[in-house]
Amino acid sequence: MTRELITGNAAAAWGARLARADYLPAFPITPQTEIIETIARWSGEGVMDCRMVMMESEHSMITAAGAAAATGVRVYTATSSQGLLYGMEMLYTVAGWRAPFVMANVSRGLAAPITLESDHNDILAARDSGFLQIHCATCQEVLDVTLMAYRLAEDRRVRLPVIVNLDGFYLSFTREPVNIPGQDAVDAFLPAFDPGPATFRAGHPVSQAVAVLGGAPYSYFRYETALAAQAALDVYAAIGADFFARFGRRHGALERYRCEDAEIVFFMMGSFSTKAKEAVDRMREDGVPVGLLRLCMLRPFPTELLRSALTGKRAVAVIDQNLSMGKGGILHTEITSALYGYRNAPPIVTSFVGGLGGRDISIEEFFEIAAINRRASETGEIPPPRLLYTDTELREIRKLQAIAHVERQEEIVP
Amino acid sequence: MYRIRFHGRGGQGMKTASRILGTAFFIEGFEVQDAQRYGAERRGAPIFAYVRADRTAIHERGVIGRPDLVVVADDTLVPVSAAGVMQGIGPDTVLLIDSAESEKTWRERLNLQGPILVLPRLIPLEPSEMAYVGTECAAAAACLTGIISLASVRQAVQQELAYMKAGVVDRNVEIASGAFARMAAHSGIVQEGGTTSHHDRTVPSWVDLPADDIGESSPAIYGAATSVAVRTGLWRSMRPVVDTSRCNRCTWICGSFCPDSAIARGSEGYPQIDLDHCKGCMICVAQCPPHAIVAIPEAEAVAQEKEGAAS
Predict the structure, then answer these.
(1) B12 CA to chain A: closest CA distance, Å?
(2) Beta strands A132-135 and A76-79: pairing type?
(3) According to CATH, where is 3.40.50.970 located in chain A?
(4) What is chain B's alpha carbon radius of gyration, rounded to the nearest angstrom?
(5) How far apart are CA A107 and CA A88, in angstroms?
(6) 3-class secondary structure, A249
(7) Where in chain B is the domain with CATH 3.30.70.20?
(8) What's the topology of domain B231-310?
(9) How many Cβ atoms are within 10 Å of B145's Cβ, its own excluded?
(10) How far is B224 from chain A (nearest CA, A)?
């Protein structure tokens, strides 16, 4: 084992390398490209024994990944944002094949307007695809969870592809100290993929992913997939326990930070949650009882764990780095549906949308979010959803609009 | 926690600078986070990178808003507001500028209370050595913290540049050592910044966005060819110059390879370079069949022009 400064992208590549991925269909897209560049370099140097193929699109890439996984080899691939959406048709398809592989998604906001920076609307568009989803907050977690994701995907009770999500820039291009485990330790944790009956050999042809006509067989296969996704919760907990025993680092479906005696809890996903930890520490110094609950696994959704973690809390502040047009923050919808009807649910669940397109969330904003929730828990009145946007930011956009407006006037008046 | 920001131009090695400093901190036993901010830039565009270092795990992320040290590798960036060099500079922030001008000049220009230091500009052995400015800035920054040894800086340079040729690495180590020594008088001037207090917090000035008319609220610019108004030529650190005595006037070659369409066929068929929009990528220099286009440092070219205008 070594401890090195590496980026989130390098951590993802290390995950694929240590998992001994056999086949890597690839297609470049910012901010993911460094993952496949790193693997291509290792492949060229001969330190990673794999077959890497550059495809002509993400649609083909995900098809190739699913097809290869269905033959029983271990597959890794990676994408981001527009690329994930371009491959969307095949996300649903290969999950329906029950083809297990691991794909990194490096979160980046979606067009339009086009951007390179991070938010979660890309990965949330894949929410209902049948891929399981694990969201990382640190570079270490990217590496560890990639290894755990193979165990999860390949487990016979699950057999579904898994997306490991890391935020663009905030993880992808950020170096942090990462423990890189030794190959022997990883081999002991993650043996070679044993596909069992789900294999394909040219000498023994089978028809996989056949068509069905009629709702009854269709419903059966879809519901079997849903049951497998549900089963992944317990399987992941067991994998997490084994990982902790071997490597000393704990990764689960939920992370609790200073939650035990907290009255107000931040609820969020991804790398911005470490900013929330900083805010929690500073508020605790000042005697404010706050904590953080981080959703690490979005699918399957850990409803029971969430309910238990929030029992007795006075207020939950949901911070969404995404926006469902005409509804609001998606995590807010997810958590309220999980809490509705639960006797011990916190009475106040508030909604904040921030961090869109890489927009930072300042520590003062976390402080204010906590203060709003404290007031709400005292009055019992839930404030309307709030976009984190300052008057300075609005002034800047007004300046840009003025420039665009003047040019439009010039066009009209010859 | 130490919070340090590097500002420079694409190609000057700001990412490498942040990584050398980050690794030097790491060698000294610090927890480290370093990152660079990519955009749609290319060579010559304003870019920045940053380093956080602390004795305990770092939870902060993203761009450093309140830096303890700001290092500027190209002093022409200081007045460019989009480059954000001055962002968050407070009375305790040390500003280190690689510049031919004096501390006094910068103090008068910027009207800053905090310490300003000038890193004496490296006299390059040849134009290609301008690329060493990143290493120089990293080593100078390391010295200013007062807690990183020269040995750690040298090791960090070797580690980060391990993929380069031995001679290049050695020259970088030499330059790092020189920059470290030049800053010795100011060793320890950069102090660790504290944490943000919850007790004395400021409340963010949030606004409710109005629902604007579609004429305002779609991402459109109502005008043609607006990019011409953006003088990307300001990004240039090297300038291509045509030696007409060698030029074959095959302008379609350099003109076709120019990624910015900044080369036109001028009088008598010689290439005419639009210096308002040439970003200094030097692809024309590489492609020119008779090797008639040479690269000279932009600062030198500007100085020559000034002399020409004066005489």
Answers:
(1) 18
(2) unpaired
(3) 2-247
(4) 22
(5) 15
(6) coil
(7) 231-310
(8) Alpha-Beta Plaits (3.30.70)
(9) 24
(10) 8
A171–chain B nearest CA distance, Å:
9
Q: Are residues B23 and A277, on separate chains, in Cβ contact within 8 Å?
A: no
Closest CA to A172 of A355, A359, A2, A6: A6
Query: Residue A217 is encoded by which pair of tokens?
Result: 């067989």
CATH number, domain B2-186, options 3.40.920.10, 3.30.70.260, 3.40.190.10, 1.20.200.10: 3.40.920.10
The boundaries of every CATH 3.40.920.10 domain in chain B are 2-186
Contact B206 A410 (CB under 8 A): no
Contacts of B224 in chain A (CB under 8 A): 411
Ramachandran angles phi, psi of B274, nearest 5° = -80, 95
Of all residues in chain B, the one with the smallest CA distance to A276 is: B59
- Give the pairing type, strands A386-387 and B31-37: unpaired
Per-residue pLDDT tens for A317-359? 999 999 999 999 999 999 999 999 999 999 999 999 999 999 9
How far is it, in rounded angstroms, from Cα A329 to Cα A331? 6
Give the pair of three-digit tokens for residue B8: 């420079």
Cβ atoms A289, A262 nearer than 8 A = yes
Verify whether the Cβ–Cβ distance A411 to B40 is below 8 Å.
Answer: no
Q: Cα–Cα distance between A42 and A13 in angstroms, integer?
A: 10
Instruction: Give the pair of three-digit tokens for residue A73.
Output: 């080899």
Domain covering A2-247, topology: Rossmann fold (3.40.50)
Contact (CB, 8 A) for A323 and A329: yes
Between CA A301 and CA B227 the distance in angstroms is: 47
> Which B residues, 200 through 239, put their C-beta within 8 Å of a C-beta on chain A?
201-209, 216, 219-224, 226
Q: Which two tokens stand for residue A376?
A: 């709400």
Residues of B in contact with A286 (CB under 8 A): 197-199
- Which residue intervals of chain A bear CATH 3.40.50.920? 254-392
Q: CB neighbours of A108 closer than 8 A, spacing ≥ 6? A: A30, A31, A80, A81, A82, A115, A116, A117, A118, A119, A122, A168
Residues of B in contact with A30 (CB under 8 A): 38
- Which CATH architecture best describes the domain A254-392? 3-Layer(aba) Sandwich (3.40)
Q: Which of residues 130-169 of B touch A (CB under 8 A)?
A: none
CB atoms within 10 A of CB B154: 18
Q: Which residues of A touch B197 (CB under 8 A)?
A: 282, 286
The burial of B133, by beta-carbon neighbours within 10 Å (0-12 exposed, 13-18 middle, 19 or more buried), is given as buried
ipTM of the prediction: 0.94
pLDDT tens for the 311 residues of chain B, in order = 999 999 998 888 999 999 999 999 999 999 999 999 876 667 778 899 999 999 999 999 999 999 999 999 989 899 888 889 999 999 999 999 999 899 999 999 999 989 999 987 666 556 555 678 899 999 999 999 999 999 999 999 999 999 999 999 999 999 999 999 999 999 999 999 999 999 999 999 999 999 999 988 998 887 777 788 888 888 888 899 999 999 999 999 999 999 989 999 998 999 999 999 998 889 999 999 999 999 998 888 888 888 888 77
